[in-house]
Amino acid sequence: MAAAAPAPTTASPPTSGGEARRRRPRKVSDLSKLKARDKIVVGLFLGVPLLFVLTLVVFPAIASVILSFTSWNGIGGLATIEWIGTKNYSDIFTIYPPFWPAVQNNLLMLVFLFTIPTVLGVYLAVLLDKELRFTWFYQTAFFMPVVLSLALVGFIWQLIYSRDQGLINGLLGTTIDWYGDPKVNFWAVLVATGWRHTGYIMLIYLAGLKGVDPALREAALVDGCTERQTFFKVVLPVMRPINIIVLVITVIESLRAFDIVWVINKGRNGLELIAALVTQNVVGEASRIGFGSALATIMLIISTVFVIIYLRAVMRDEPGGAR
Amino acid sequence: MSTTQAAAAVASTRRPQPRTAAVGQRKHRPWLTYTLLTFLAIAWLFPLVYAVMQSFRDYAYTSKFGYVSLGGWTLDNYTEAWDRGNFARGFVNSMIITVPAVLLSLFLASCFAFVLSRYSFKLNLTLLALFTAANLLPPQALLVPVFRMYLALPVPEWLSPTGNLLNTHLGLILVNVAFQTGFCTFVLSNYMKTLPREMYEAAEVDGAGTARQFFQLTLPLVRPALAALAVLEVTWIYNEFFWATVLLQDGTKFPITSSINNLRGQFFTDINLVAAGSVIIAIPTLIVFFVLRKQFVSGLTLGSTKG
Predict the structure, then answer these.
(1) Nearest to B231 by CA among B280, B185, B297
(2) Are residues A181 and A224 in the same domain?
(3) B16 touches chain A (CB under 8 A)
(4) Is the pLDDT of residue B106 over 90?
(5) Same-domain check for residues A179 and A53
(6) B109 near A CB under 8 A
(7) Which chain A residues are closer than 8 Å to B130 by Cβ?
(8) Which residue, A108, A102, A107, A72, is CA-closest to A87?
(9) Do A156 and B197 touch (CB under 8 A)?
């Protein structure tokens, strides 16, 4: 499963300590005042990790965008590349049959993850934030699927979805191929994905709730707010940074969903997803580099928008890096 | 503290009012919460418990009586799945990839985060943003250039018989490091910013250079953060599916997670084998989760607590 995002705690109202810290003169060291030997060390400390990220993330991202305006089958050197303008994009939008089903599936996953697993995860976090007995058991139950890869989740749910040996058909006496029938298989995937997503959101939100000043909530309850009002009018607004992070995680997870459909049928026959289409075009027999890159660029643009929203949320109170 | 006491005092004077009576009433109905939570928790545990249960059942028995039954207990599925799925090799491959990738990510991220949190310079925040963003991009969007670069990069024969980085564990380690360093940097730099600056000043007075400050002061102090991140990263890289699937071609090189691709084809006629295979694959991460749960959770939430 792809990497996750960190979960900052909520913005608590600025404490006097925090303000004092900010007013203190910046004692951070200036790079230019270092000795020559230390400059080499700093250069290596920055340079080597940067080299990794630049060559394997930043450069490929840029190259994907450039390649998307070309036609290249990957055979022959870079000299055989032909510039074809935006033809790849117009082809994708008009004559590439799996594209719109994939977009539809990605959107469906987004809407689904939002309306059920995300909301449920937040709700569970609110319930578990109270002093409850057996809270360890509950948290374990919801969180366990999160440590499994989505590929494994797809594999495990086969026990439930299999046509001939699955639990659902065994219970209902039906003969539906839950992973194979294009009418139902994406819903089957959504349920399995949601099983994992719920616990993830619950954990992030629970961590956020622990950071909310309890006095805020007590004050609201004392002022006569019901518990529901307290949550919606007091806790939720204070949790704004966490809310943004949950939003971005959900968008990005639904955009780069790949493992589970690839394990089931390589993203075909009802299980089309943009990420799977990119992969099919690049590693399959028909290696259509330019075309695959155009699909990749579409993913890149959508994710960049949300990455920026995310960065603004997590770096909101960075006073220019080191304090 | 005074706010809480004041709130409590106000609460006691207001108790007779109808609005707070509602609060009191809700507190008498925790059974509703418990019922709901218990129901959902059982539903969430069910797929795993069901998998464990079926993994111990004989195929002949279940095909005769169906899966909605009990009985036919056996351990054979495990031995068969282990042999047919080539799990021994898969686990070795997973280790070969995960251990160096985690160590390298943590080390590089520590170095980078150290400079970011210790010194101020123009691009400081930009670099942190770049690294954090790098972790969030969909890997599929980078597939084409990475794939072509690996194909074009010559490496010595002894590393790869084909002479390039494709289909090598090294290539997979490098790409995992590039992706995970960003997340680790973000977490570690937040953690390092909480270290007292005076400590470095004292070290400088004593004549300690940058490298010594890093190895002798910073690294020992961020051990808790490193432990938490290590747990998280081991899980993530063990679970990594996409890059292993596209960059490796040779079936004998696949780590456990991407070997699921092949297992599905091999086991699909025998769901009991699927169950046993699932349990085998899940065991390492579940052990990590149960033994190092605190680190796992704090790793996810560390990025945040700035102080």
Answers:
(1) B297
(2) yes
(3) no
(4) yes
(5) no
(6) yes
(7) 53, 58
(8) A72
(9) no
B214 close to A45: Cβ distance less than 8 angstroms: yes
Is the residue at A57 inside a domain?
yes
Coil, strand or helix at A29 = strand
Query: Which residues from B are below 8 Å from A307, CB to CB?
Result: 133, 136-137
Residue B8: its H or E element: helix B2-14
Beta bridge partners of B119: A29
Which residues numbered 196-225 in A keep a CB inside 8 Å of some CB on B? 198-199, 203-204, 207, 211, 214-215, 218-219, 221-222, 224
Among residues A255, A256, A243, the alpha carbon closest in space to that of A204 is found at A243
DSSP 8-state assignment for residue A115: I
For residue A158, being part of any structural domain is answered with: yes
Residue that is last in its domain, among A67, A86, A111 = A67
The band of B219, judged by pLDDT with boundaries at 50, 70 and 90, is very high
pLDDT exceeds 60 at position A319: no
Whether B142 and A296 lie within 8 Å, measured CB to CB:
yes
Q: What is the pLDDT of residues A14-67, one digit of tens each?
A: 333 444 444 444 446 777 777 888 889 999 999 999 999 999 999 999 999 999
Q: Outline where chain A has alpha helix (H).
A: 16-23, 36-53, 59-67, 87-95, 99-113, 119-129, 135-143, 150-156, 158-161, 167-172, 185-210, 214-222, 227-229, 236-238, 240-255, 259-265, 274-283, 289-314
pTM for the predicted model, two decimal places: 0.86
Give the number of domains in chain B: 2
| CA dist., res. A222 & res. A216, Å (int) | 10
**Which residues constitute the domain of residue B3?**
1-46
Q: With contacts defined as CB-CB under 8 Å, which chain A residues touch B178? A: 52-53, 55-57
Cα angle A86, A90, A92; round to 5: 115
Contact B68/A171, CB-based, under 8 Å?
Answer: yes
Question: How far, in Å, CA of B11 to CA of B27, rounded?
Answer: 15
Q: Is B49 at the interface with chain A, CB within 8 A?
A: no
Residue B119 parent element (H or E): strand B119-120
CATH for A182: 1.10.3720.10
User: Domain range for residue A281?
Assistant: 68-314
* A contacts of B296 (beta carbons < 8 Å): 147
CB atoms within 10 A of CB A63: 18
**pLDDT, tens digit (0-9, with 9 covering 90-100), for A97-117:** 999 999 999 999 999 999 999
Residue A131 sits in the same domain as residue A270: yes
